[in-house]
Specification:
Bound molecules: zinc ion
Strand content: 15-25%
Largest sheet: 2 strands, antiparallel
Shape: elongated
Number of strands: 4
Helix content: under 10%
């Protein structure tokens, strides 16, 4: 038995600086959001490692934490570890 996960889109997408899933939702900000499919939108805390060092994969070890909104019905649950942040001037973003 396979779950139809391939029909779910990637969570955490942004359009015009706003969370895509929230732009598609109804509801009051800071009260609750309900996606246009009728499912309540959940938030998932995601940590982003900060790679700000001068060599590959190096950095101070800090992480930035964000809450990613997602629709559990339409979107994949975000992983708890996000894409690394590479500040300008670091090895990965010279
Ligand atoms: Zn949905």
């Amino acid at each position: 038995m396979t779950e139809a996960t391939e029909t779910k889109r990637q969570s955490g997408q942004v359009r015009d600086g706003k969370w895509l899933v929230l732009t598609e939702s109804t509801g009051e900000p800071s009260v609750n959001y309900v996606h246009d499919c009728g499912t309540e939108i959940l938030g998932k805390s995601v940590s982003y490692p900060i790679w700000d060092g001068p060599t590959p994969l190096s950095g101070s070890g800090r992480c930035e934490s964000k809450t990613i909104p997602y629709c559990p019905k339409c979107e994949k649950e975000p992983g708890s570890l996000g894409e690394p942040i590479t500040p300008k001037g670091s090895y990965h973003n010279p």
